[in-house]
Amino acid sequence: MLTFTLGTFAIALNHLLLISALALATFVGWRVAKRGGENPESALFSLFLLGMLAARISFVVVYWTHYRNDPWQVIDLRDGGFLAWPGVIVVVLATLYRGWRRPGLRRPLGFGAASGLAFWLLATFSLSIYEQGTRLPEITLRNAAGETVQLADYKGGPLVINLWATWCPPCRREMPVLENAQQQRPDLTFLFVNQAESMQSVATFLETQGLSLSNVLFDGGGRLGQAVGSMALPTTLFYNPEGRLLGSHLGELSDASLARALENFDTVPATSSRKLPCPASATC
Asked: Are the C-beta atoms of 250 and 79 separated by less than 8 Å?
């Protein structure tokens, strides 16, 4: 499961874990403060923001080549571009500094920050292990010609699957990024699996936007999203040649966040050429 869904509301599990860690840290710090000390609520929230800022700045520095032509993208957090470990290190150092400067805050802040970080690290590691144990679903889809294709037939090489719809603004914004990646990375197979829309509406959208995409497939019932546990769009999945999930990204991809996601394939050995179920045309 990649998202937590309640009615029409959906949130990525990694975001939910982060919010839960902050809530746990605040609760633990408050309980400890009741036995003596200052309430660390505001300090914990400021540490959370500081950690997020450090994680974002670190990501931008590492992937600066993808931002330098459009610096305004640096403040567009919708791409999910954060590096966790620099943020964790900054939070730990800032916690130690605040505890040293304010003895009354030391114990509540220390217990709160430690419990939140421990929960987040353990939960994130468990989620990663769970995700990487999942396999490519056995799903039947249709290509633009209306022919039936099996998703499992695409195994045999690195695979990127994008779940999208024309009515989804983030999907529309990230399409040029994915189109460029498909052209630049012929060693990867990109599948654009439309969710519950007609072939005509998708063809019209691609034509009016001037997009040339190979391997556009149709999932009329949205079964693929249900199978992978994501009801949010866009969702992008990364599978190794054996059909094992390497990683996922919920939300809009930028050049930088896609570049980072594609690093999942750096250790994937090259495979021999394979026959795809559908020829590489603009709408297949």
From this structure: no
SS3 of the chain? CCEEEECCEEEEHHHHHHHHHHHHHHHHHHHHHHCCCCCCHHHHHHHHHHHHHHHHHHHHHHCHHHCCCCHHHHHCHHHCCCCHHHHHHHHHHHHHHHHHHCHHHHHHHHHHHHHHHHHHHHHHHHHHHHHHCCECCCCEEECCCCCEEEHHHHCCCCEEEEEECCCCHHHHHHHHHHHHHHHHCCCCEEEEEEECCCHHHHHHHHHHHCCCCCCEEEECCCHHHHHHCCCCCCEEEEECCCCEEEEEEECCCCHHHHHHHHHHHCCCCCCCCCCCCCCCCCCC
Band of residue 230 on the pLDDT scale cut at 50, 70, 90: confident
- Give tens-digit pLDDT for 188-211: 999 999 998 999 999 999 999 999
Complete domains list, the chain, with CATH: 3-132 (no CATH), 140-265 (3.40.30.10)
Distance (Å, whole) CA 277 – CA 126: 35
**How many angstroms separate the CA atoms of 204 and 15, rounded?**
34
Q: Give me the chain's average pLDDT, please.
A: 90
CA–CA separation, 14 vs 22, rounded Å? 13
Supply angle C-alpha 279, 281, 284, rounded to 5.
Answer: 70
Q: Which of 162, 153, 187 is nearest to 268 (CA)?
A: 187
Give pLDDT tens digits for 25-55. Answer: 999 999 999 998 999 999 999 999 999 999 9
